[in-house]
């Protein structure tokens, strides 16, 4: 029996308007198209890659000061997350959904640092998303056999 692997889709697919990397879930257009054809192991691997990407980028801007508080706020506001999702990846979801309403990140178990010092929740979200899109595009290009072929023959 296979275990159901959740889709990383957050319902904001920007690939339908021409983006090669989705602004909502950071999957590339090929991953979105092929998602249900992947084996459970491949989907699990892709979910792990996406979580790692979000956590890596978010760590440049934020720290999780209280993971339990973060989870309680996600539950309170009914923001979807997975049990195996790293706290910083969860923080990206919180900012995506609640950025305009969050005034004090400490009440959500988060603390801006590094590139995020002095930024509002809205500004943090914008900066994190910009970096995620840049790195998502780099990830897409690294996995595209045509791009790799073109670079080798340039």
UniProtKB/TrEMBL annotation:
UniProt xrefs under InterPro entries: DUF1289
Pfam families linked: DUF1289 (PF06945)
Highest classification ranks of the organism: Bacteria, Pseudomonadati, Pseudomonadota, Gammaproteobacteria, Oceanospirillales
Organism superkingdom: Bacteria
Name recorded for this polypeptide: DUF1289 domain-containing protein
